[in-house]
Design brief:
This protein is of the alpha/beta class. The chain has one domain: Spore Coat Polysaccharide Biosynthesis Protein SpsA, Chain A. Helix content is 23%, strand content 25%. It contains six helices and 15 strands. The protein has an eight-stranded mixed β-sheet, sandwiched between helices. A three-stranded antiparallel β-sheet has the order 7-8-15, with no helix packed on it. The model has no long low-confidence stretch (mean pLDDT 94).
Amino acid sequence: MKIVAHTVFKNEVNWLWYSVTSVIEHVDKLLLWDTGSTDGSWEIAKKIRKLYPERIELKQYGSVTPGEFPVVRQKMLDATSADWLLVVDGDEVWWEDSIVKLVKTIRERGNGLEMIVNTNINPVGDIFHIIPSQKGRYNIDGRSGFFNIRAINLKVEGLHAKGDHGVQGYYDGENKLIQDGKKNRKLYCDYGYMHMTNLKRSKSPQMERKVPKRAKKFKYELGSPLPLDFYYPESFFKPKPRLVPTPWNTRSNKYISIALLQKPLKFLKNKLGLHKKYGY
């Protein structure tokens, strides 16, 4: 059962190294495509490629608009010859035990499944605080929470990518979202990855603004502290080049002050049910 991962990135210097190195030794190949990074992410990608030349297919695709993003995903699909696809965004860092379980599940049960849904933990402010799981609003089959489809059977008939960046999805030959398919062809797993989507992902606000819709993802929230003995993904502890930023930075006093100021308004919006729709 051949498994290929897809990673599209732009200005993900803070997390790209940890994301790719958390999965690369467990997949057969990883397509690593840059859509116009200017913050050092491309240099980090080249370092990873040098470490894993047989597994990494590195490409500078060039800048894209939100509407062109699914074209990139589709071209990656067209360039992939495999049985299963693993979607790994540049801000997603897997635990080794989780990726091992996922790959084992695909190899043992992949012929009877179309997709696998994995949970994720969402840090906010820094990696020592998280958004409580009950605040997750991703919805599949009436379930809500922090989870996402991260493994897809490439034998799904007519599989293709569609939708603007932020709400892009994978569809079948009848133009239906694959997540709306038969429940018995989906597997929900209680293991997954840390999703850094709400943290700083590039060197500066200027670099963040070069990525479509990135500003909508950063959050000022106090979050819930993780226990002191929390087990972080192994890739945080492995040797890395000097140009890779440390993951251990803590939130500033300024950040905490802004989060405190915003808390009453967010509480009111929550009570009134004024949530944003999923996506961005």
